[in-house]
């Protein structure tokens, strides 16, 4: 096989088709040259070309009026190996892939959606207060022990608990204490009370067993005095409610002064519902 260079001729934009013995011609006026096989030695069908012969030709970039030299490889057709994973394809500025439609609209919608979802989560999950108000005394069951001059009063009181949250609230326990003239006459504690539904109110009734004796024995004579129709005494009821919601516990305290007729059994009005006691003195009704 003869020299590969002898089987090619160069052509130029204005060189007049001069033949050259080398792979490229340098005599063209504008330097825009191409490489074509010689017409008399065209590679016919079935003719094999050795890869070694083709590899002898270096890469040559042909530029004209409407083209520029590649700024990355500077026309050599090669890039440094260390830049192999650092370069990307050369894409025209007018390529529509660089200008996706409604990009700003999609970004604004995404931001608005995130803000809306975040706002709704904060609004519905933000902990709100649990309000505890006094429901008054429902009834008083009075008994006497003449031998010890003791008055026993089972006082049934109530609390109104309002859940202002969008989720259930668990009432863990209720602690209550009754005083008369700064003397504690009865205490009670109730656990595992109830659940309160979202945005609802529940009334919880509970009974405290009180005992008036010892230094307050004069109350026995007052409560059993037949000349008086109504034997009212003033008691102070202090209650503490512990609720649990959103992985934290909260305590609300309330106190109220109430009149109790210690001369006879009295029913003031009925509670709306009752729950069974889970422990402690006294009982829920």
Automatic annotation (TrEMBL):
Location in the cell: Endomembrane system
Pfam assignment, any one: TMEM106_N
Region (Disordered): 1-40
Transmembrane protein 106 N-terminal domain mapped to chain residues: 52-104
Any single Gene Ontology cellular-component annotation: endomembrane system
Residue span, Transmembrane protein 106 C-terminal domain: 127-267
Transmembrane regions: 105-126
InterPro entries in the cross-refs: TMEM106, TMEM106_C, TMEM106_N
Keyword entries, A-Z: Membrane, Transmembrane, Transmembrane helix
Primary site of residence: membrane
Biased composition (Polar residues): 20-31
Signal peptide interval: none
Family: Belongs to the TMEM106 family.
Protein name per Swiss-Prot or TrEMBL: Transmembrane protein 106B-like
Organism: Petromyzon marinus (Sea lamprey)
């Amino acid at each position: 096989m003869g020299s590969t260079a002898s089987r090619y001729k160069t052509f130029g934009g204005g060189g007049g088709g001069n033949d050259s013995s080398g792979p490229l011609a340098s005599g063209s006026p504008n330097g825009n040259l191409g490489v074509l096989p010689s017409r008399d030695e065209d590679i016919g069908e079935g003719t094999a070309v050795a890869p070694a012969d083709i590899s002898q030709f270096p890469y040559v970039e042909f530029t004209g009026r409407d083209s520029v030299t590649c700024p990355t490889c500077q026309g050599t057709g090669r890039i440094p190996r260390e830049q192999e994973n650092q370069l990307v394809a050369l894409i025209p500025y007018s390529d529509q892939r660089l200008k996706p439609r409604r990009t700003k609209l999609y970004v604004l919608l995404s931001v608005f959606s995130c803000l809306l979802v975040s706002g709704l989560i904060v609004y519905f999950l933000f902990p709100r207060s649990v309000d505890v108000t006094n429901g008054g005394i429902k009834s008083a069951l009075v008994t006497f022990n003449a031998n010890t001059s003791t008055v026993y009063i089972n006082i049934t009181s109530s609390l109104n608990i309002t859940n202002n949250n969008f989720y259930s609230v668990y009432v863990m326990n209720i602690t209550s204490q009754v005083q008369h003239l700064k003397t504690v006459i009865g205490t009670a504690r109730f656990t595992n009370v109830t659940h309160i539904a979202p945005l609802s109110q529940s009334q919880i009734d509970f009974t405290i067993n009180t005992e008036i004796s010892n230094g307050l024995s004069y109350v026995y004579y007052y409560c059993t005095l037949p000349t008086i129709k109504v034997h009212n005494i003033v008691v102070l009821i202090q209650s503490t409610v512990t609720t649990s919601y959103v992985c934290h516990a909260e305590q609300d305290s309330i106190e109220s002064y109430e009149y109790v007729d210690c001369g006879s059994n009295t029913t003031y009005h009925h509670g709306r519902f009752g729950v069974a006691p889970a422990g402690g003195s006294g009982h829920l009704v």
